[in-house]
Structure formats: structure tokens, C-alpha cells
Design goal:
The chain is of the alpha+beta class. The chain has a single domain, classed as Aminopeptidase (3-Layer(aba) Sandwich). It has five helices and eight strands. Helix 1 runs antiparallel to helix 3. This is GNAT family N-acetyltransferase. It holds the Pfam family Acetyltransf_3.
Length: 181
């Protein structure tokens, strides 16, 4: 079974569940209570929109327990003496790895929390999570050509630029060294 919580120095990464996604989509005032964290004012961030939430919920519903951990992950900044636990971003995988061991990741950080290295830390955590599954051999990611901050996050995490994909996005790849649980 895939671990559904992953810790980094400043973040707790929590795998999305059907209950969390349902609350996020349909009962937003209960979502932070279930999550146990304060929401930023601009939630949801970036490309993590209602369509992404619905996609993750549909995939978790269709895939049952085997789908857990292969879709959305919430990035919660750990409490400090001056601030409570706060949801700062979302990321995750677009599904389990394919037959060759390739999985795709994506991520978004709330505007109020950008520029603090949290996206880099979130991606590091997703890479570590992929390694922990023992199933992923290669990760891919895409950014828009006019998003240098996102490109820097990937480069800082050992991804290499592979050129443009057919949709005009910059494609990145990274080899993963799987580690059995």
C-alpha cells in the first residue's frame, strides 16, 4: 500500500481522499475542518481548479483503494510558533505509472505563499513519494514557456528540459531510483 502522508522539512503532504475532495467541491466550509488547516485567501491556486478536483475525485472513485496516492496531494505548511497549519498548495500525479514506469506530476502554490521555496519542496516530496512506491522509474512534468518560476522548480529538483510537446508546453523528465517500502 502507498503511504498517504509524506513529511518534508516545512510541509506535510497529504494524499487527497474522496471525503476531502467531496468537501472541497461541495461543502467548502467543512474542507478546512477535515483538512485540519487554514485555507489561503486565493484557494484553489493556479491549475489546481475545479476540473482537476473533479478528475481526482472521479479517478479515486473508479480506482478504489488502489488509486489512493496516485492523484492529488495537499501541501500543508506545518504550524510554527507564529502561524497555524496552512494549506499552501496542491500537487500530485496524473495517475499510476504506465507499463514503462513513467508517471506525470503537477503542482500549484497559492499566490500568498509563492517565492518561499515551497513549490520546490513540494516537488521534492512528490519525487520522494514516487521513489517510496518502488513503481516509478521516470517522472515527467510540463510547464508553459512563459513560466520561468515553475521551470526553475523542476530544474532545482533534477529534471531536464526535453523541448516542447505538441501542445507548446515545455516538457521535463527525471529518472527516479525506486526504493521499496
Amino acid at each position: 500500500m502507498i503511504p498517504l502522508i509524506h513529511q518534508t522539512p516545512r510541509l506535510t503532504l497529504l494524499a487527497a481522499s474522496r471525503a476531502l475532495l467531496t468537501a472541497e467541491l461541495h461543502k467548502p466550509r467543512y474542507f478546512p475542518v477535515l483538512l485540519g488547516a487554514v485555507l489561503p485567501t486565493d484557494w484553489p491556486p493556479g491549475e489546481y481548479d475545479e476540473d482537476a478536483m473533479r478528475f481526482f475525485l472521479d479517478q479515486l472513485t473508479a480506482g478504489g483503494r488502489t488509486a489512493a496516492g496516485w492523484y492529488g496531494w495537499y501541501a500543508i505548511r506545518k504550524a510554527t510558533p507564529t502561524s497555524p497549519k496552512t494549506l499552501v498548495g496542491a500537487g500530485g500525479f496524473m495517475g499510476p505509472p504506465d507499463a514503462s514506469g513513467t508517471a506525470e506530476i503537477g503542482y500549484s502554490i497559492a499566490a500568498d505563499w509563492r517565492g518561499q521555496g515551497l513549490a520546490t519542496e513540494l516537488v521534492t516530496g512528490l519525487i520522494e513519494q514516487a521513489e517510496r512506491t518502488g513503481m516509478v522509474r521516470r517522472l515527467i512534468a510540463h510547464t508553459l514557456p512563459d513560466n520561468p518560476a515553475s521551470q526553475q522548480v523542476l530544474l532545482a529538483n533534477g529534471f531536464q528540459t526535453m523541448g516542447l510537446d505538441p501542445e507548446g508546453r515545455v516538457r521535463f523528465e527525471r529518472i527516479v531510483e525506486p526504493q521499496a517500502l
